[in-house]
Design goal:
With about 475 residues, the protein is an alpha+beta fold. The chain contains 16 helices and 18 strands. It catalyses: tRNA(Lys) + L-lysine + ATP = L-lysyl-tRNA(Lys) + AMP + diphosphate.
């Protein structure tokens, strides 16, 4: 604050509206990177950057400037070139973290360091808080809570932003290549549905109406398909008032896409293509993890829920297996089950706890019991199952898809059952959406649908936790 005041006293603007920048630091590096040691160019430039290193030694001062993408360049200020007053001001008023403007000649130092030899300098933006010591690093809590500092000091944090952007851009391009149309659907909703999840509640003053934030984009996207938008998708924020841990966030980003006259197998092709293209955009299809190497080039196998669980526990389990047998298996494997759960719910829980964590390579887990997805259609060949899959990679669900239920009579039965569960205290059960059912009654074409977690896909490629993949994740308030 004192240095800010001194700048003002001397008629120097600590926060000017702009400076006469002629080149970015990256452009200087690209254009003059060939210079030999102690070479001059005669080219005068104006550059800016944040000061991340400074060394003031008598008549010659050195500073390392950094711009947004992490590119760095050395600035040199000598008594002979800038004059006594300007050099004294530099030493007295410039701190780590300041944005400065350097005007001067592009040279290479005696040690071969590409530099700008200043003939003048000015403040571009005065920092009032000191930067952390770059080599000491920040603890995780500070990195996440003050992401702006994390981005300044850590190249990995900046790279995460670019990686995520590349993944999202690739997904859009893949879907556009198949004739999909991107739309936007409401975030504020009268009825929450499209998934089993606990919503956030709010209130719309204009209508004096209680509302929820969306837990999925599904029901509105299906309305669009009913209306004739045969291939439709949305990438958007979802809000679920649930737990927070290394793989879950209350707000997160999903892709949902729906395609008329497709089924779960067509959607598996779409999913595989999207993920492989995203991997190429990031730069690798082979991912090293603490569990082993994931090779996306390998076989993407299909594994049935009941055969997979049977093999894992050494007991044949079918849709007819009794709850008593399933509860014994749960007890034996240390899987907690609730007294009110039916056999379908127990099977889903057993598979998720026992089998899913072991699936390192890409695996489409399919042939689920109906309780897994109230919006999926019955299996075309096998009674007691639905046409749905979850894609497991690295022991974690990354996305899901199904052959969509389009029969409005059966859909009504399932949503009525969901509303009964909600009335009985199930906070995750869907509400009965009469308008959605009305849309289906106008006739929805057969369709396949996909749900893909963008955050979890970025987690796969970067092997980072969800708090690292979300630029500004939700955190508890700071104390004090």
């Amino acid at each position: 604050m004192e240095k800010r005041a001194k700048l003002l006293e001397r008629g120097m603007e600590p926060y000017p509206v702009g400076v006469e920048r002629t080149h970015t630091l990256a452009e200087i590096r690209e254009k003059y990177g060939h210079l030999e040691a102690d070479e001059t160019t005669g080219d005068i430039v104006g550059v800016t950057g944040r000061v991340v290193f400074v060394r003031n030694t008598g008549k010659l001062c050195f500073a390392t400037l950094q711009e947004g993408n992490g590119t760095r360049l050395q600035a040199m200020l000598s008594l002979a070139n800038v004059g006594e007053d300007a050099l004294a001001d530099w030493k007295a008023l410039v701190d780590l973290g300041d944005h400065v403007f350097i005007h001067g000649e592009v040279i290479s130092s005696k040690r071969g360091e590409l530099s700008v030899m200043a003939d003048s300098w000015s403040m571009a933006s005065k920092a009032l808080r000191p930067l952390p010591v770059l080599h000491a690093g920040l603890n995780e809590e500070t990195r996440v809570r003050q992401r702006y500092v994390d981005l300044i000091t850590r190249g990995e944090a900046r790279q995460m932003v670019y990686t995520r952007a590349a993944v999202v851009r690739s997904i859009r391009e893949t879907l556009h290549g198949h004739g999909y149309v991107e739309v936007e659907t409401p975030i504020l909703q009268l009825v929450h549905g499209g998934a089993a999840a606990r919503p956030f509640h709010t209130h719309l003053n204009a209508f004096d109406q209680d509302m929820t934030l969306r837990i999925a984009t599904e029901l509105y996207l299906k309305r669009a398909v009913v209306g004739g938008i045969d291939r439709v998708f949305e990438i958007g924020r979802i809000f679920r008032n649930e737990g927070v841990d290394s793989t879950h966030s209350p707000e997160f980003t999903t892709l949902e896409s729906y395609e008329a006259y497709a089924d779960q197998f067509v959607m598996a092709e779409r999913m595989q293509e999207m993920i492989l293209n995203a991997a190429d955009a990031v730069g690798t299809r082979v991912i090293e993890t603490d569990k082993g190497t994931i090779d996306l080039n390998g076989e993407w196998r299909w594994l049935g829920v009941y055969p997979g669980l049977s093999e894992a526990v050494g007991v044949e389990i079918t849709p007819e297996t009794s709850g008593h047998v399933l509860r014994d298996i749960a007890a034996k494997h240390g899987v907690k089950v609730e007294p009110q759960w039916d056999t379908q719910k127990i099977v889903i829980e057993l598979f998720g706890e026992i089998v899913e964590p072991t699936l390192l390579q890409p695996t489409f887990v399919y042939d689920y019991p109906p309780a897994a997805q109230p919006l999926a259609r019955h299996h075309r060949d096998r009674p007691g199952l639905i046409e749905a899959w979850d894609l497991i990679i690295g022991g974690m669900e990354r996305g899901t898809a199904f052959s969509e239920l389009i029969d409005p009579v059966i859909q009504r039965e399932r949503l009525v059952e969901q509303s009964r569960k909600a009335a009985s205290g199930d906070h995750e059960a869907m509400q009965l959406d009469e308008d959605f059912l009305r849309a289906l009654e106008y006739g929805a074409p057969p369709m396949g649908g996909i749900g893909l977690g963008i955050d979890r896909l970025v987690m796969l490629f970067t092997q980072a936790g969800i708090r690292e993949t979300i630029l500004f994740p939700l955190l508890k308030p700071e104390l004090g």
